[in-house]
Amino acid sequence: MDSAVERLVRLAVEWSSTEDAKAERVALWESLSPDERQQTGESRAFISFANATKLISDPFEHSNESPPKPDIRTSIDGQNYYFELGEITDQGLARNIHIAQKTKEVSGCTLSQVDPLAKMLKQKCEKKYETNDAHVDLLLYYWRQCPYEPAIQDYMSENRYEIERLIKNSQFDKIWIYDWQSGKVLKKIER
Prior knowledge:
single chain, 191 residues, 6 strands, 46% helix, 19% strand
């Protein structure tokens, strides 16, 4: 991990509400480029997922990668292992959150549970990644949008064959659907 990104991720994961810690988080965030901010979010999501699943002993032992490689490289059982990440968020909701953060005004909107998941699955599974024959999993996660599990399970069940086709034609060994807020794996699909 890059030093500023790693420091900010550690501060966020090892949360402290002191004014000094808050000031340091804000200063670090403001010093990051857009790519580093994305890497920070990906690292935080990965660390939360890795802690929840116990896949690796030290979730901080990973590096952020750039395309055409998957987002995260780590080691599992002594072997390189990659994770491609994707946040599942309805775009209307994301836009309204962005506007609310800038204007400090809250507004509501409708959102879809299924469309962002279906779009992200298709988009990520159809993409090719440079992995040098290392294993790669897809980690789709909810962060800004709370998942409604019955709708997700219905979608997965009703579209089982399409999802199986997508994973079969992709590079992914597994697809994980993860709720960052609850620390819960909602679905794990293996090739």
